[in-house]
Amino acid sequence: MVAPLGLIAGKGELASILVRKLNADGLPLVVVTFDKSTKEAISKETKMVHRVGLGQADKVIKIFQKSGVEEVAFAGKVDKRALFENPVFDLRALSLLKNLDGLNDDAIMKAIVAEFEKEGFRVASQIEMFKDLFPGPGVLSKRAPGKKERADIEFGMKMAKGIAALDIGQTVIVRDSAVVAVEAIDGTDETIERGGRIAKKGAVVLKVSKPEQDPRFDVPAVGLDTIETMIRVKATALAIEANKTLVIDMPAVLQTCNRGKIAFVAV
């Protein structure tokens, strides 16, 4: 008998994509989410969905243990700002937080992964699970970047890799070889909104991986929401790191890029 996969599902379409894939392959799973809307969406795909409070680490582990889970996977976004909204932490979660050097993404996620491994779970690689969703280098949209956009991409990729190395964020917004916004705890789409307000129009969006990206969590991703936000703020180009950035629903992303005349490249 195949052990079910334990999925910790964040917001967005990525978790639903994985659930549909596992269902199509006839593989069992148990889903835990912290988000009401995510539970409602995934409940349409499977009945094995549990919603728990963000700080209930022990409850998550016990759900997986009772279900016979051996491998755990992360998919989707968890808004880190919730940590500042006074969630109720159980003793296991409090112990994890107490031993952290800071509340940056890597520190939190590595502590969570270590806790699962301590309990005997394997933690799956997002790159392996979604390997068909990482495009290689090239122009992906109908429109290629123009000369000015290419210069901004070259400049912006260096800036984005520097910010990612500091574990601040994985997205920067550039116009005329100036960084106008840097992703922090607010996430990609709100960073694009901020950058768009400053740039007015013609902004270029860069998305990269960290220099030592852990493939089990927080792999950079873009999707339809990214492109729709860019169109709304009149950004004109998106560049992602080839083979290292996940594109959610590529057909819809490309269709929307082409409709909005956005140049989309992997470099």
TrEMBL record:
Positions of the LpxI N-terminal domain: 5-133
Residues of the LpxI C-terminal domain: 137-264
InterPro entries with a match to the protein in the record: LpxI, LpxI_C, LpxI_C_sf, LpxI_N
UniProt cross-references to Gene3D superfamilies, sorted A to Z: 3.40.140.80, 3.40.50.20
PANTHER family: BLL4848 PROTEIN, LPXI FAMILY PROTEIN
Protein name (record): UDP-2,3-diacylglucosamine pyrophosphatase
